[in-house]
Amino acid sequence: MTLDMAYAACQRIAHHYENFPVGLLVSHSLRPHIHAVYAFARLADDIADEGYGNLAADHIPPERTVPGRLAGLHRFEAAVRNPASEPEDAIFVALHHTIQQFDLPIQLFLDLLSAFAQDVEKKRYASFAEVLDYCRRSANPIGRLVLLIHGEREEEQLAASDAICTALQITNFWQDISIDLLKDRIYLPQDGMTSFGVTEESLLAGRAGPEFRALLAMEVERAFRLFDEGCGLMQTLPRPLRWEIELTWHSGRRILEKIVDLDFDTLHHRPTLGVLDAPTLLAKAFFCIRDGSPRSPERAALRPSLHAG
Q1: Residue 17 forms beta bridges with which residues?
Q2: What are phi and psi of 226, to 5 degrees?
Q3: Which pLDDT value is given to residue 4?
Q4: DSSP 3-state of 96
Q5: Which of 297, 170, 182 is nearest to 230 (CA)?
């Protein structure tokens, strides 16, 4: 297993990650290292994911059971801690080379694995604070690793990156509500559900009534605010990294805009980015065009009726 072969394998795995491209606008010399980080996260996330709906099938492969998935994540943890434990695994050949090249903190990779392990067993979140703690480990390490690989290490930059990554993560949650329900997983905070009168039964029944839409409107606004908190990061970054983060920022916000356009009904529709979105997103990224705030008059006009009562 040569380094070139290992990084090529990572590139294939990390070709697309969630709602945004990976390494599209990163300098050629750093792109393999970005792919190694994303490939590790993608594979670990796949291990944690059920892959069999709610796992109610009669014959579940051992590696897809809860103990099997946790064992897979423990193997990844051992491989992160000890490079010799998986000497021929392409992902870890590339990953450990990247870790050594840039002196990356192992803890960031362990944080990712702890979040994925939590996903195996934890299906409900009592509060938004619990959701944020999950995002701290499931999403924020990715942004920090990307910055560290580029030599960007200022604490203010890392904090802004955390805001963007958390926004991307919760955007994905609100985009995927219907998919997560099939896995018996609900990221909507239970205290918020109670406050708005949304029940698990109504979610499972697909009732996207005014209560659900009002709840999701509040959560979407939280995500917009987090994107706003992190937007100053791009001004501190050199090109082409700035363009990469701009594109990621705009892509996440575009998903939120599509949720608004759906009148917050993601129980029946899953908004995604398509080829028609690409020209606008790329133009905004290259020319650093900023959309209006979530507190703009257009969005503010949506909320009174949604929150009424």
Answers
A1: 20
A2: -65, -40
A3: 93
A4: helix
A5: 170
Gap between the Cα atoms of 35 and 3, Å rounded: 13
Per residue in 7-44, is it b (16+ CB within 10 Å) or e — as a string? Answer: bebbbebbeebbbbbbbbbbeeebbbbbbbbbbbbbbb
Amino acid 84: pLDDT = 81
183, 53 in Cβ contact below 8 A? yes
Say which residue the tokens 């938004």 belong to: 128
**What's the token pair of residue 169?**
């993560």
Sequential DSSP letters for 186-239: --S-HHHHHHHT--HHHHHTT---HHHHHHHHHHHHHHHHHHHHHGGGGGGS-T
17: tokens are: 């990650």
Mean pLDDT of residues grouped by 10 in the chain (309 residues)? 91 68 75 93 88 52 85 94 83 95 97 96 97 97 96 96 97 96 95 97 96 98 97 93 92 96 96 90 84 46 38
Closest CA to 69 of 92, 46, 53, 88: 46
State the pLDDT at residue 169: 96
Which amino acid, 50? Answer: E
Task: Supply the pLDDT for residue 303.
Answer: 46
pTM tops 0.85: yes
Sequence-ordered list of residues with C-beta below 8 angstroms from that of 184, at least 6 positions apart, any chain: 54, 123
Q: What pLDDT, on a 0 to 100 scale, did the predictor assign at position 219? A: 98
CB 224 within 8 A of CB 253: yes
Helix pair angle (90-102, 140-149), 10° resolution: 60
